[in-house]
Specification:
heterotrimer, A mainly alpha (99), B mainly alpha (166), C mainly alpha (632), B: mainly alpha, 2 domains, 6 helices, globular, C: 632 residues, mainly alpha, two-stranded antiparallel sheet, two-stranded antiparallel ribbon, 25 helices, 4 strands
């Protein structure tokens, strides 16, 4: 069990690093998906620890996957819109919210 | 949890693949490679799901992620048409990112070793049938909410992509 | 009369008022033919609205026992159960006959008087609204409903005084009337609070019972009647709150006749009579009431002798006569006071309607004795009914006012000789000022200061009928309460006198009659000649400062301006310009500047880059997680 948690922790750290450092919007999205997968891994693992007969964790993982898909769809649509508008997907150059 | 040594070993192998693929996806400066690595990562995670007695979730992981999201990202890549030829710029915040990532990872791993966990229980044999009933029974609200979110996402994606000419 | 019919009394009128209000609101949106239809039926509908309660009140005379009553739980808050209760006992019957009867005649008169005026439908809507509120006030069987109606009456009075709202004088007169009476209402409201606090109920019967059992406590036993009387002082324009009534003459004249002569101003008297059991418990309060009434009667009468505007003479006369009634109440003979209210309503309404008839014929907004004279040949009905009312007011037998004044005098005779003297002087002055007015306006040489006197014609029949009816009432109303008919009116009201019943002695009859005749004779001697106006000027010269004081109404308005309104305005100005502009606005602006400064400072944190936001979020999450880890 600890093994699962260690792996998910490592993956989460990798995702965090990607989110923090990458400047390309698509890579950012991939990093976010890695984060979510790390979380899903934990849900599935914990599904067997607490109330395994209800499989709440698995249900939650499925919900998470669905939401991730939604997020990917909307995110990619956003990326396309941004690309059309600014001609780039480099979030380091998109700063029109600067105060 | 993982019932036999073979399963533990398999899980570790999948985990290693996942970590390496994730690292590759995050670190490479070529978008295409990043996406391929991401696909590999997702598949490895699906393997781990299967080993954790979540065969249906693993299946969905393959269907939705590998078959859907990755393809979607590929389309986005092609439509935005950047990054294949020349490497992407990497942020100047690498130091800070590394520190934060180490902190998060270290803390999570430390917590994993320190956690006081209960014994693993038995999962119903036919998870698909069980999940189907669960989604229409105890988890009905979650099911409905997913439906609404999906609908909203579809509408939102359409609106965003088509702009004002709806 | 069945109980259910009782509800019809205020609500028929109210229903008519609502319909007319809607019609008035839609009036400008209607096509010409519909507008003509609305205009044609407004008068008859509103007359119907007050005819129904009038007939029901007449039926109520013959009801037995304590009269019909209706009561339903309206709402309850905590311990307070508020009932919607109506009751038509004897006192209410008398008052309802006066209110509905005068209202009916005034409605009839108004159809002619207001014809073609701007806001014709609205006028009738407001008049009906007032009548329904007044009926509600009369019929209410608990303090809550009474107070609500009391305020409704005040509000509709405000609307009607300010009916010519485009005239600044009318607009400010309405405000003055409303605010001045509010001052008294504040006392009334406090009295109601005290009653509920100490007795736990607002129903008249229960309140009186509990108060008689001594549950109010020693202090409140005197304070509550005095506070109630404060409300009555405001509404009935007694000193020192009398200043609003003369200004209220800015309203249409039929309104003055209805509200400021017969009904609303009498509501104060009615209130005291209605709550008389509370006053009986406090002789000190009764003494205050009596003296306020007597002083008002005398002061207002001395003012009335020098006023030049017809309606202002009548206004001060009204204040003075209300003083008579209040004195009677204070002297412990409420029946005499209510009797005088009953008779006074008819002849004073007649005086006002007669003045309205003159004003209508003159085409002016207000008419003073300088403007007109010698109208008796041109307006015979108006003039002779006016004389009838004048005789009634002067207390000449056998007209209505004589009998009721005589009752008051008789009630004072035994215990209050000083008050009796004051009222006798006021009575003499009354006879003088009203016949001064009559001789100046209707007799002597014909004159009209603003054009040809030939423009004066008798008013149309519809306006003449109410004058004639009121003329008959001015003669006959007094017989409702005379001793040789067995006091039918007093029997109906069935009030308990606090003082010993006085007996009408022959010498008092002779004295009062003599004073009345003397007043009339003096007026004739002064103004009966060919040059009445010159006589007035001569009188003014001879009396000098005394006349000045009277003509300026004892300088009450300027005194109030200096002592109350002026300081209040400067305090308000100080608060507005110094405190509000300086302190409060300064603080608000200071906060705005502080916010702007902080905003400029924190603006730099907003780089607009997603990466920076995510970094912040991640660092924040770690810190939060670490903190939670420590805490948990």
């Amino acid at each position: 069990m600890t093994l699962v948690l260690v792996f998910s922790g490592l993956l989460f750290a990798i995702g965090t690093y990607g989110v923090l450092t990458r400047r390309n919007a698509i890579t950012l999205l991939i990093s976010v998906e890695i984060l979510m997968n790390a979380a899903n891994l934990n849900f599935v693992a914990f599904s067997r620890l607490w109330e395994p007969e209800l499989m709440t964790g698995q249900v939650f993982a499925l919900v998470g996957i669905s939401i991730a898909a939604c997020e990917a769809a909307v995110g990619l649509a956003l990326i396309l819109a941004i690309f059309r508008r600014f001609g780039t997907t480099d979030v380091g150059r998109i700063d029109f919210l600067r105060g | 949890m993982l019932d036999s040594d073979v399963q533990i070993a398999l899980f570790a192998v999948f985990g290693g693949i996942a970590v390496l693929a994730a690292l590759a996806a995050v670190l490479t400066r070529y978008l295409m490679r990043s996406i391929v690595a991401f696909g590999a990562f997702l598949t490895a995670i699906a393997g781990q799901f299967y080993l954790l007695a979540a065969d249906f979730v693993a299946l969905i992981q393959i269907f939705v992620y590998v078959g859907g999201v990755v393809v979607l990202i590929l389309f986005a890549l092609m439509l935005s048409a950047v990054g294949q030829k020349h490497p992407l710029a990497v942020s100047e915040h690498r130091g800070l990112g590394a520190v934060v990532a180490y902190a998060v990872g270290g803390w999570l791993v430390w917590a994993a070793f320190g956690a006081d966990l209960p014994e693993a229980g038995e999962v119903p044999g036919e998870t698909v049938a069980f999940l189907g009933r669960a989604f229409l029974d105890q988890q009905l609200v979650a099911f409905e909410v997913i439906g609404i979110i999906l609908l909203a996402a579809v509408v939102a994606a359409l609106v965003i992509v088509r702009g004002e000419r709806l | 009369m069945s109980d259910a019919l009782l509800v019809l009394m205020p609500f028929t009128t109210l229903g008519v008022a609502v319909v007319l209000l809607l019609a008035a609101a839609l009036h400008t949106r209607l096509g010409p033919e519909y507008r003509a239809f609305v205009d044609r039926w407004t008068g008859p509908l509103s007359v119907f609205g007050v005819a129904v309660p009038f007939l029901l009140a007449l039926v109520g005379v013959f009801s037995t026992g304590s009269g019909p009553r209706v009561e339903a739980l309206w709402f309850s808050v905590g311990d307070l159960d508020v009932f919607f209760g109506l009751r038509l006992d004897g006192l209410a019957t008398v008052m309802a006959i006066v209110v509905a009867g005068v209202s009916l005649l005034v409605h009839l008169f108004s159809i002619g008087y207001m014809k073609g005026e701007h806001g014709y439908v609205l006028y009738f809507a407001e008049l009906s609204l007032f009548s329904s509120a007044m009926l509600l006030l009369v019929l209410a069987s608990n303090f809550f409903l009474l107070f609500m109606a009391w305020e409704l009456v005040g509000a509709t009075s405000y609307l009607l005084i300010s009916f010519y709202y485009y005239r600044p004088a009318a607009a400010s007169a309405g405000k003055k009337a409303f605010l001045t009476t509010r001052l008294g209402d504040l006392g009334f409201l406090i009295a109601i609070f005290a009653i509920f606090f100490h007795l736990g109920t607002l129903r008249f019967d229960e309140v009186f019972e509990a108060a008689e059992a001594g549950m109010l406590g020693a202090g409140w036993e005197v304070a509550v009647p005095l506070l109630i009387f404060a409300g009555a002082v405001g509404k009935s324009a007694q000193l020192p709150l009398s200043v609003w009534l003369p200004d209220a003459m800015e309203g249409p004249t039929p309104v003055s006749a209805l509200i400021h002569a017969a009904t609303m101003v009498a509501a104060g008297v009615y209130l005291v009579a209605r709550t008389f059991p509370l006053f009986e418990l406090a002789p000190a309060a009764l003494t205050v009431v009596a003296w306020v009434g007597a002083l008002t009667a005398l002061v207002a009468a001395t003012i009335a002798v020098s006023q030049r505007d017809i309606k202002r003479v009548l206004a001060y006369s009204t204040i003075s006569q209300l003083g008579f009634m209040v004195t009677a109440l204070g002297a412990g003979v409420p029946e005499a006071g209510m009797f005088h209210l009953f008779t006074h309503a008819w002849f004073k309404a007649l005086l006002f309607l007669g003045a309205g008839s003159v004003i209508h014929a003159s085409g002016l907004h207000a008419v003073s004795i300088d403007d007109v004279g010698g109208l008796v040949k041109r307006m015979p009905i108006t003039a002779w009914t006016f004389v009838l009312a004048g005789l009634a007011l002067a207390g000449i037998p056998p007209f209505a006012g004589f009998w009721s004044k005589e009752e008051i005098f008789a009630g004072l005779l035994a215990e209050e000789p000083v008050l009796l003297g004051v009222l006798l002087v006021a009575s003499f002055l009354t006879a003088f000022y009203i016949f001064r007015l009559i001789f100046l306006v209707f007799f002597g040489p014909e004159r009209f200061a603003h054009g040809e006197v030939s423009r004066f014609h008798e008013s149309p029949t519809l306006m003449g009928i109410p004058l004639l009816v009121l003329g008959v009432m001015s003669v006959l109303a007094g017989f409702a309460g005379v001793s040789f008919l067995g006091f039918p009116l007093q029997d109906l009201m069935d009030l308990e006198p606090a003082a010993e019943e006085g007996h009408v002695t022959l010498w008092l009859l002779a004295l009062a009659t003599g004073l009345g005749v003397a007043g009339v004779a003096l007026a004739w001697w002064q103004y009966g000649g060919d040059r009445p106006l010159e006589a007035d000027v001569a009188l003014r010269r001879n009396l000098g400062p005394l006349y000045q004081v009277s003509e300026n109404a004892y300088y009450l308005d300027p005194i109030y301006d200096r002592t109350l309104i002026g300081p209040f305005l400067s305090a308000a100005g100080f608060l507005a310009f110094s405190v509000d502009n300086g302190l409060i606005d300064g603080a608000v602006n200071g906060f705005a500047r502080l916010t702007q400064g902080l905003g400029a400072l924190f603006r730099r944190a907003q780089t607009g880059l997603v990466r920076d936001y995510v970094t912040g979020m991640a660092v924040g999450s770690i810190i939060l997680a670490a903190v939670l880890w420590r805490v948990l």
